[in-house]
Design a protein that fits this description.
By secondary structure, this protein is an all-alpha fold. The protein has 19 helices and no strands. Helix 13 packs antiparallel against helix 14. The longest helix is centred in the middle third of the chain and has 31 residues. The chain starts with a helix and ends with a helix. It is a multi-pass membrane protein.
């Protein structure tokens, strides 16, 4: 949770510092958006490395090394700020953070059986919400009182402190894959077993990926542009905008813990996970998309903030529930690799979102109209993803299919 909190704090950092960076470096909205998109491009590429890293190194040392890397990536902007340095540092940051999400979930799932993974997943995902509730206001204060460089330095120090705590406190749980310390999955007699990667071809994986991709595109825009929308588009002060950044996350916390807790209880009582790992996240994402589509029709700033908060908060439940669905359909020795592919392709939505939003804002006369239009477009994409998930995500069915393919292999 702490690592995910810091992870999202680094993502939030660009959104909090976007306006001061534009003013000091003379950047356009498109350039800030490009820096955000470069980060998510590198994060997508890095996500595909989760499987190989999980095979080559113990989870403890893999995550510790990645955290050191992304903490140090923040330093160049402090000493030599420019547009080129901004893009380069976000590129490296995304590359180091890319594999971390799948490895974080794999590490957490090693302590929980399959039927009780939604709530632990929600706890991890809640750290993303908590970063906007707890870290964003602190970063906003640092930026307003001491300049944006102080916020970059603070996140660097926090990341390095976490590494010391992690290396001294964490160990692999009883539900981890046998190869988590670098060993391959083996059958009795010591022979290496060939396993099928059929999980990534199932409707659950593909439909869940469509939903997660559509929402993550929206998330990337929220992380990059929501404080600017509140400040420039709706007229709030810089400190108010940074503080209000956490409002959507308050709704997200209620949705995450409520649905995940009830979902795990339902599953232990024999209720099909199709309902709480397919129908519920699909419905939440549908409401999210509809709320974003309606933003240009709302003329009251407070109501706009409420609509964004409720819609985004309900949409957030797709992450822990769909991650749990993916973990249900794949063998445990493939968990890091399968989640790595899922999360890498999902995060590729961030390649498009921030830059597209910046281009829309630059092309429209009114900043308020530009931001609202950008969120409306992404809301329509979320609706498509939600409908896809509602129709396709069925973990029990696809788990049986994967097991049959594995036996055949």
């Amino acid at each position: 949770m702490l690592l995910y909190l810091i992870n999202y704090g680094d993502k939030v950092l660009l959104g909090i510092a976007a306006q001061p960076l534009r003013e000091e470096l003379g950047l356009s909205a498109s350039q800030i958006g490009l820096a955000g998109s470069v980060f998510f491009f590198a994060m997508t590429a890095g996500g595909f490395l989760a499987g190989p890293i999980g095979r080559w190194a113990p989870l403890k040392w893999a995550l510790g090394t990645l955290a050191i890397g992304w903490a140090l990536c923040l330093l160049p902007m402090i000493v030599a700020a420019s547009f080129v340095v901004l893009v380069a540092s976000r590129l490296l940051l995304g590359l180091f953070e890319g594999p971390s999400s799948a490895l974080i979930h794999t590490a957490a799932y090693s302590w929980h059986p399959v039927e009780k993974r939604a709530l632990p997943g929600a706890l991890i995902t809640s750290a993303a919400a908590l970063s906007k509730i707890l870290i964003a206001p602190v970063l906003a204060y640092l930026v307003a009182a001491h300049g944006w460089r102080s916020a970059f330095l603070a996140m660097c120090v926090v990341g390095l402190v976490w590494v010391v705590t992690w290396l001294s406190a964490w160990s692999l749980g009883p539900y981890g894959a046998e190869h988590a310390s670098g060993q391959g999955a083996r059958q009795k007699g010591g022979r290496t077993r060939t396993v099928s990667w059929s999980a990534i071809r199932t409707p659950t994986f593909l439909g869940g990926l469509a939903a997660a991709f559509s929402f993550y595109t929206l998330v990337s825009v929220v992380l990059t542009w929501l404080p600017s929308y509140f400040e420039v588009g709706l007229g709030y002060s810089r400190l108010e905008a940074g503080t209000m950044f956490g409002f959507p996350s308050l709704v997200a916390l209620v949705a995450l813990f409520g649905t995940s807790y009830l979902g795990d209880r339902m599953m232990t009582r024999g209720v099909s996970s199709r309902i709480h790992r397919g129908i519920i996240p699909g419905a939440g994402l549908l409401i999210c998309g509809l709320s974003m589509v309606c933003l240009p029709l709302i003329g009251i700033p407070g109501v706009v903030v409420a609509a964004v908060s409720v819609g985004y908060g309900l949409g957030t439940m797709v992450f822990p529930l769909l991650n749990a669905a993916v973990s249900e359909i794949c063998p445990k020795e493939q968990l890091a690799g399968t989640l790595g592919v899922f999360l890498a392709v999902m995060s590729s939505g961030g390649i498009v979102g921030p830059y597209l939003a910046g281009k829309i804002v630059d092309a429209v006369d009114s900043p308020a109209s530009g931001y609202a239009l950008a969120f409306q477009v992404l809301g329509a994409v979320a609706i498509i993803g939600a409908i896809t998930a509602l129709l396709t995500v069925n973990p029990p069915r696809d788990a049986r299919r994967v097991l049959a393919d594995r036996d055949d292999a």
